[in-house]
What we know:
Number of helices: 13
Helix content: 40-55%
Strand content: 5-15%
Amino acid sequence: MTTESDTQDATARTAPAPEPASGEAPGPAGGTAPPGHRPRVFSGIQPTGALHLGNYLGAIRNFVAMQESHDCVYCVVDLHAITARQAKAELKRNTIDVANMFLASGIDPQRSIVIVQSHVPQHSELAWILNTVAYMGELLRMTQFKDKSGGGEGESIGVGLFDYPVLMAADILLYQTDAVPVGEDQKQHVELTRDLAERFNKAFGKTFVVPEPIIRTEGARIMGLDDPARKMSKSAGSAHNYIALTDTPDEIRRKIKRAVTDSGAEVRFGPDKPALSNLLTIFSLFAGEPVEALVARYEGRGYADFKADLGELVVESLAPFQRRMTELSADKGFTLDVLRDGAERAQAIAERTMAKVRDRMGFVARP
């Protein structure tokens, strides 16, 4: 998911009954929302390494913007991260780093809920229950499982990797989520979430809101600096593939200067110029200018001037974020307080959903 959800598209429908983060009395799940309630968004990012420009431009920046129109739940999905083996100390550090990156980017913990997935045990409980209505065949068709498993189905492939989409469905449905900002590569998982919600609702009675995907467009495909045919990725073999949000100014300038370019010296956007098109997209998103205006500005000037200016723009644009990251890293108590408060608010919503789920299925309520 990352969950690497993020778009400014207004395709989310009116919330049937979001339990609002501010504590207002909720309507019944799946019912008609009282006037003034906003649609709820859920998105998460895995704490599996350095976040980069692709995460920021394609997801995190839009998470911030969505606070204006949605009730937002943003999650560090540490349970998803352990589908691959994680070193204990590294997972702890990365979890706090991703939470800090949410906050440093401008996500307001007073307006949005910021949580760590494992802090809300209802995620795991609902995932197990949804496993009982999910089918092996539909999980085997998940393209991300095929990609990450190398297309194999042997004994060495972890069950967690196979079952990842069901946990993602639980993450979303637990909060009666209306809209899920995802990239095109995650759309299939949201479609599975919709199928599981509708199947459960049909079998046991109306319980879950059926969410809609919001497909990222702007900034959805930021490609690697060393290979414009592959998306920028923190798991890339080379650190020159990506610009980490915590890279120093000199590292940023050096990586952009060394970014591969296309044949010729003309700064132009087009399918025959994939490397320059990628750099122009990054420039356009940070500068807030159309690509056409940038092409006109650098007509006849060549790659060197363009890359130098882009390097300075990225350094300048990330400076406020990096200053805030430094502040948050020096005040660990603040982030832990945010996560504690977020877990309490999230668990209140989650437990309302789970009480309904348990009742629908016939579990005996805890005395």
